[in-house]
Each structure stands twice: as structure tokens, then as C-alpha cells.
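Saturday, quiet lab. Running sequence design on the C-alpha cells for the scaffold JK sent over.
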């Protein structure tokens, strides 16, 4: 188990939600047009979405190996985070696919010459971004509330202490510090991570 700064992780979760909302706005703007220059219009969005997806996956990895996993409902929250992160990755892939569906007319005689196929793909990407943003915001609020509650912190600390005495649970060198719920990590993660689409 590694101990990381959960306050920083809360900030990063909220940051992901804000970034997804910004990406959604950009997707909507492109989708509303003719997508006449798909690479120029969509590649920057796709790159940003892919970079965000990588940060989301990294945050998921960081949290799943930290004290967060042993806090109340930690495993359930991680499951939600894993799904949201996957949806961010899918949305990023769809932004790239939207480029192809608009440019395939250059490759195939029977390809759709209108931007409708790309619009449909972008609509799906936007819906996934929306759902992920909501999930990330919910997870950020949930963690923030627990960190703000002394009773919740005591409860989480008891769960973490119990986990530490369980067989097979070891701490990393970064956990040599006190086993507080919100113990700082020597090199806080600077990456951020998405909610559940049903």
C-alpha cells in the first residue's frame, strides 16, 4: 500500500470533469459544422482526449494501490472510477474514428460523402464524455466530503489500520510516513482520471 495525498487526488478528479466538459463543448462545435477539414478540426481534440485518458488510467492505478482502496466504499468507488476511465478512453478513440469516417470518401467510391457518419460517432463520444464528467465530479465530491468529516476520517483510518495488519499487505517506501488517511505522497501524481454509462 502506498500513501498518497487524497486532497490532491480530489482536485485531480474534479479537474478531469472540467476537462471533459471543455472537450464536450469542442466536440459539439465541430459536430455542428460541415467537418470539411476533419483532421485539422478533430485531431487536436482527439490528442487532448487521449492524453486525458492516459492521465485517468494513471490516477486509477495510483488510487487502487493506495490507502484509498481500504477506505469506506473504496473498492466500489474504484470500480466506478475504472468504468469512467474506460469511457474516457472510448470517447478519445471515437474522436479519432470520426476523422476516418469523414475522410473515407477519399478511399471508397461508395462512402458517405456527408458528415453524418462522423456526427453520429461524435455524438456517441460526447455522450460518453458527459457521463464520465458526471461520474468524476460525483467521485470528487464524495471524497471531498469524507476528507472534510472528522468522523469519516477516523472510520477510514480504522479500516486502513486493519488492512495494514492483514497478511499480504505491505507499504511502499513512500508510506514510511504516518498512516493517516490523507498522508502526503512524496511525489504527488499530476495526472487526472470518468462515471458510469448505463
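Result came back. Writing it out in full:
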Amino acid at each position: 500500500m502506498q500513501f498518497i495525498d487524497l486532497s490532491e487526488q480530489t482536485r485531480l478528479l474534479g479537474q478531469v470533469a472540467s476537462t471533459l466538459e471543455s472537450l464536450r463543448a469542442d466536440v459539439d462545435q465541430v459536430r455542428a459544422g460541415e467537418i470539411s477539414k476533419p483532421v485539422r478540426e478533430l485531431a487536436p481534440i482527439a490528442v487532448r482526449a487521449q492524453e486525458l485518458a492516459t492521465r485517468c488510467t494513471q490516477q486509477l492505478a495510483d488510487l487502487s494501490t493506495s490507502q484509498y482502496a481500504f477506505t469506506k466504499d473504496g473498492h466500489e468507488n474504484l470500480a466506478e472510477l475504472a468504468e469512467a476511465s474506460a469511457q474516457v478512453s472510448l470517447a478519445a478513440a471515437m474522436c479519432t474514428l470520426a476523422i476516418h469516417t469523414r475522410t473515407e470518401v477519399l478511399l471508397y467510391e461508395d462512402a458517405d460523402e456527408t458528415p453524418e457518419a462522423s456526427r453520429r460517432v461524435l455524438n456517441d463520444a460526447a455522450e460518453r464524455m458527459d457521463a464520465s464528467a458526471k461520474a468524476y465530479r460525483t467521485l470528487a465530491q464524495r471524497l471531498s466530503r469524507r476528507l472534510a468529516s472528522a468522523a469519516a476520517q477516523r472510520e477510514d483510518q480504522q479500516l486502513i489500520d486493519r488492512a495494514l495488519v492483514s497478511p499480504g499487505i505491505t507499504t511502499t517506501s513512500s508510506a514510511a510516513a504516518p498512516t493517516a488517511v490523507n498522508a502526503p505522497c512524496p511525489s504527488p501524481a499530476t495526472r487526472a482520471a470518468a462515471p458510469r454509462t448505463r
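Notes for JK: Helices lie at 6-32, 38-64, 74-103, 116-148, 150-164. DSSP finds five helices and no strands in the chain. Ask whether to fix the surface positions before the next round.
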